Amino acid sequence: MTNRPNPLQTAPEFYRAMKTLSDYVLNCGIEKSLLELIKVRASQINGCAYCLDMHAREARKLGETDEKILMLSAWREAGIYSEREKAAFAWTEAVTLIAQGPVPDALYDATRKHFSEKEIVDLTWAVTVINGWNRMMMAFEVPPMKPAAKQAAE
Question: How far apart (Å, rounded) are the C-alpha atoms in residues 137 and 135?
């Protein structure tokens, strides 16, 4: 158990600001189920158990199958994702791993085949926001919800 503060309670102004960004992303027009899969994929890369737990549950509520959620780390090989989903996952990985190098023009061009310019900007905001949440939750060691809290949230 950590002795670190819960960042959402300690800095409620931050939480409200991030919630505003998250709400924008949720209502930007990109399919909500795809947004949840993007959040799961970024959270897998970052190793954020809190966000993995939350967004896998949200994806299920939106009708995503366990297979699609569980196979995300192997999305290239899985053969179960649409071309649009695969483009979103490739973009998500490139933006999440931006410290390894810039997003290549070829990836932008490939993504542009499945998303409008505005959707790519919104997709990038979605990845940026979930990466922010991942970093905050991981830095303060916020654990996934306990089973009773999960049931109450559903």
Answer: 6
